[in-house]
Amino acid sequence: MSQIFTGNFTQQEPLPEESIEAAVRVMRHGRLHRYNLSDGEKGETALLEEEFAAFTGAKYCLAVASGGYALAAALRAAGAQAGDAVLTNAFTLAPVPGAIANAGCTPVFVEVTDKLVMDLDDLQMKIAQTKARFLMLSHMRGHIVDMDALMAICDRAGVQVIEDCAHTMGAAWNGVPSGRHGVAGCYSTQTFKHLNSGEGGFLVTDDAELAARAIMLSGSYMLYERHTAGPPAEVFEQIRLETPNCSGRMDNLRAAILRPQLRNLPDQCAAWNARYQRVESGLANTPGVKVIERPEAESYVMSSFQFLCPDFTAEQMVALQKRTAARGVELKWFGADTPVGFTSRHDSWQYVSAQSLPQTDRILAGLMDMRLPLTFSLQDCDVIAQIIREEAGILHQAG
Length: 399
Fold this sequence. Notes:
single chain, Aspartate Aminotransferase, domain 2, Aspartate Aminotransferase, domain 1, 2 domains, seven-stranded mixed β-sheet
């Protein structure tokens, strides 16, 4: 009888006891709003911002309501104006073009390679074609492009880079933390990310004026001096009356939940990578399956797994989904014509003008994706890999 997997692909680990105790303390004193402080109190959100700035090596950090909010705020704070073209990955999730649209700008998609990163040749061409001044770079599903090469291209062209690090918190390129190459890095603490507060996010930067504008945009009123991971008060004097309040603050309850998790993040990252590497090893040399190559310069954190079936038809991709699902393994296919759950592709975002992206379309047509929660054991990962290997092998052989 075929082996069946019984794990839950959406079940996260419980929050650490330290997070639960910290949340209860905040609920007991009732000061959930980040600016509702007692005398001499700094507040959980301000402390979290200090700690996340130290973790990334950034001068400034702002904690916000979501990763998508961080992206839109970073774009506006960097100077993007309504109608500006903003370059971004053709392979990403809906909140990325959504953030560009939220800032009143127009997404322009850049092709993806079979390593699931931005095609730098197409990037150079799109910069020349559009004269875009901004790139919102999505490190989609934890895959990091050659950041040295990308930054050289963008620096020469005067393009400001905002990094979407929703899937790369704790990762690095050539030793530089993800989010620290461009003018700003944005992170998510939504349940399925590397820190879990249900919803939430961070914006980090070394640019004092960008940080000040982002803090004002987040809804600081004139309480910006309570942002102890923000720039000095004199920076705000230039922009505080001209920057709109678009409230998107993080509250002290979520910050309290996150602070203990941040301290544990390096161990969690190692645990995710152990699971990723177990599946990677199990799928190596599987007929019909191509595992994504990882460059030596990339220090990744993989809480999900992707593989390509480049020669499978659409019918075979659907069959692979169904066959693995029957054995308890949930795969998401990025080539489907209709968005499903969190999974969609560029041509389903109809608020963006249709764009020709044949290379991306070809790659997404053969791309499978799955979560790897830490509730899975290493032995679970062996079983998952074996099921995919068997079912892909059957379909490949049937051809």
